[in-house]
Structure formats: C-alpha cells, structure tokens
Amino acid sequence: MNRTKFSMIISLAAAAFAIAQSCAKQEVEVFSGSERYVYFKRYIKDKDGKSVRVDTSMMSFSHHYGATEFTQDYYLGLVGQVPEKDLTYEVQIVEDGTTATPDQYSLPEKFVFRKGQLEEVFPITVYKNKIKEGDEKVLKLRLVDSHDLKVAFNNPTDSYTDIQFRFNNKISKPLWWDNTITGAFFGEYSYKKYETIIKANPGFTTIEGLSSAEIRMVALNAKDYIEKNGITEDDGQEMDIPIY
C-alpha cells in the first residue's frame, strides 16, 4: 500500500471516530442528568403482539352507529427516572395543520403525567353534532417543553412530538369490510345493510376483535332479521347476506 492511500485511510478512520464521539456526546447531553423528557409514542403492541401505529388516527362516525361522541386515545412515554410526583406537560395546537374548531373536540382538563408512571394516555373526544354531515376535520397537536418535562425528540418531522386526528361525519364503508367479509359473511356493502346488521345485533358496530365464529353469528342474525322484516336495499333489490 502506498503512503498516499495509507494516509487517506488513517484520515477517514479519524473522521469516523470523531463523528461517533460527537454523536455519543450529544446523546449523553440530551438524556443525561435528573431531567425527564416526554414524547408521543409512535407505535404500541396490540393484543396479538403486533406493532400498531398510534400517533395518527382516522375515524368516521358512520362506522360507529348511534354514537354521538367518540374518544381516541394517544400514548405518551417518559425518558428519565420514574416521577415521584405528578408532572405537567404542555401540548399546543398546530394551527397550520388543524381545521377542527374548539367546539368539535375536547382535550384532557389537565396535562398531567402521574407519579410512578412511565407511560400515560392522552384522550381526545370529538362530537358528531358539531360536525356537518359530509364534513371532515383534522386536529393536529404538538408537545412543547414545560416547567416539569422537556420534549424528548424535539423535531416535528420525527412524529414523536406530534399527533394527528382526522375525523368525519361522512357515510363511508368501514375499512374492515374487505373482500373476505364481502365474500364469506356480509355480501356487498351498503350503508342501509350496515345499519340493518347493527339493528339485528344490539351492541355490534365492528368486527374488530371478533372471531370468525362470532362474525358468522352476526351475519346469521342479520340474515334472519332481514327475512323476518322484509328489508330490501333502497332501490328495492334484495338485501343479500351470503351466509349459510
């Protein structure tokens, strides 16, 4: 190896070492000491152990038949020592990302990270009667430093500081009503059929969390209800539930 190449390798190695040292130093500076830091969780584990994205959500009141309000939970994490007393955090509305008005939603009365906890729930409640039929709204919130808690990942592009809730009062097909549900259980979607299935199964609004046997029972109840009450689609066509 000639001297020029050897010198270049030594220089690159030295540069890489300096960068690594700088990053390590920065990490220590950000999360060292007795200070505590808060962030919105991007993912949590569901009951099956799968990672689910939770910092951004969407809901339609048409998927929650009869509901006049709906609460969506977001999740906060803490970096640092377990708090020995209640700590307050601060959340601000991101104006340029929000179309919802204050009467359409409510936030926790106090932004408190309780003592003895490293995780906290942040609920947002929205109200159907405040949203015009067909409208869709967006609420975007951002964590900012408070007296008790600083922001752990202070960069909005990381999504750890921001949450977004998109909600609407539109009639739309539930996401869970996919090809499998169409072919094996409920048939083709219509909003009237969705309403009918719910009426035939008090308390039912979604298949989420139900087993195949439970979904089948919902479909059979709906099929029986349709036949007994002579229910058809709005155009007079048969309301078909393809379950036997």
Description of the structure:
- The N terminus is likely disordered.
- Helix 3 packs across helix 4.
- The chain is built from four helices and 13 strands.
- The protein is 27% helix and 26% strand.
- It is of the alpha+beta class.
- The longest helix is centred in the N-terminal third of the chain and has 29 residues.
- The strands form four sheets. It has a five-stranded mixed sheet, with no helix packed on it. It has a four-stranded mixed sheet with strand order 4-13-11-7, with no helix packed on it. A two-stranded antiparallel ribbon has the order 2-3.
- The chain starts with a helix and ends in a 15-residue tail after the last helix.
- The chain is elongated and about 65 Å long.
Features:
4 helices, five-stranded mixed beta sheet, 244 residues, alpha+beta, four-stranded mixed beta sheet
Structural class: alpha+beta
Low-confidence spans? 2-30
Radius of gyration: 26 Å
The portion of residues assigned to helices is 25-40%
Note the gap between the termini: 78 Å
Strand order of the largest sheet: 8-10-5-1-12
Number of helices: 4
Q: Total number of β-strand segments?
A: 13
Instruction: Please state the average pLDDT score.
Output: 86
The major pleated sheet works out as: 5 strands, mixed
% residues in beta strands: 25-35%
List the secondary-structure elements in sequence, H or E.
HEEEEEEEEEEEEEHHH
General form = elongated
